[in-house]
Amino acid sequence: MPVDQTPEQLAALLRELCRLPNETEWVEFKHDNGDAPMIGEYISAIANSAALIGKQSGYVVWGVEDGNHEVIGSAFKPSVARHKQQELESWLLQKTVPKIHFKFYEFSNEVGLPVVVLEIQAATHTPVQFDGTEYIRVGSYKKKLREFAEKERDLWRVFDKTPFERQ
Question: How far is 163 from 130, CA to CA, in rounded Å?
Answer without folding.
Answer: 25
